[in-house]
Amino acid sequence: IALLESCQALSTYQCPRTGSTLLHSAAMGVDLKSVRRLIQLNANPNACETTLSGRTPLMYAVQHYAPLGIIKELLNAGAKANFCLNKRSIINYASRGAEGNLPVLEALLDSLGVSKATKAVNYLLSDTEPYKTALDFAQNPQVRKLLIEHGALSGADYVANLRNEIKLSRVG
């Protein structure tokens, strides 16, 4: 932190090769104080890597199981919980697997509000069949329940609904 204090330019520096920032690195750790200080020094909570993955600091934090305090700090600084890129979704990172991360998923969905949360939980994570959403990757019953409460559908059901809407709009 002392180094950050002496050189504010470090807080906004992006690696020319990857586009990652110090906030990307800090978000993966457990040091809330460093994350908070970088944000105070104008680090961008939505900075995207320039590599194919295009991850943001919040994606890093969720993917690497950072403490909930770091997740909330990034959200309070304006990090976009509904950010999706290259078939990757922050909601999916928090939902996937046998455990999922229920407290983080709750914080992400709460930060979005109802309509944005419904759209975020139904982001298609594939362009071809079988279509998948976060619900398809979630195995924890509590995580699945929370996703469904926010309007999540399986990828197949979501695409079927879209196709029905298109048919109805052609008839009407």
Automatic annotation (TrEMBL):
Gene3D superfamilies on file: Ankyrin repeat-containing domain (1.25.40.20)
ANK repeats: 18-50, 53-82
InterPro entries: Ankyrin_rpt, Ankyrin_rpt-contain_sf
Keywords, alphabetical: ANK repeat
A Pfam family that the UniProt record links to this protein: Ank_2
Protein known as: Ankyrin repeat domain-containing protein
Species of the source: Vannella robusta
